[in-house]
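Take one record.
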Amino acid sequence: MLKEVRKKRAYEDIVVQIHDLIKKGRLKQDDQLPNEKELSETFKVSRSTVREAILSLETMRLVERRQGDGTYVIATSEEALVQPLASTLYGEKDDLIDIFFLRTIIEPEVAQIAAENATAEEIEELEKILRKQEDEVALGVREAHQDTTFHHLLARMAKNRVLERLSLALVDLLSETRDEYLQSEERKRGSLKGHHRILDAIKAHNGSAARKAMHKHLADVEKIVFNKKRGGGKKS
């Protein structure tokens, strides 16, 4: 399965080989990798090079080192397709406007698929989330937990593992911005209103309406966030 590498930066070749085996399903979630000594002998490299490769795979969220036990694959083959992009999003200080742009491409698609395939149980779960969000608004809770949970559930409802992982990465990446955006009562109520529009479209299994509702919701959020940024961080 694995072969000797001959690059100057040999750890990169190790990463590519192991990543490829996960993508192809030859290394599966919860499989244990050989130990450092065995990998060093297989790849004909030093143990420090192996450790560098494992660290890179950990950063990509493909494997996990468990103290006193070994290194295990934690990503599925589907996740292995998107995790490097997700980890890049986490690791880079990209302009917020670029991240929001990508979100406006991904999340309306997620909302449409969710509307077309929503089960009664999933709709009920969305309704529960919005009731909790209403409670948060009424109590003046500053955190955006239910807002995040709403978007996470929509991503799961799309029933596409790659699309779900990418959507979750974007939502989680913007969690700090979301908390800031939702601090005022007006903003929290605006977010709740946008979620209700999306839910109404999903309950009607109207994919086109769900897509439009998500577009409007994200546009409203973007307008507030970037008007604030241009205003030097002053609260409106």
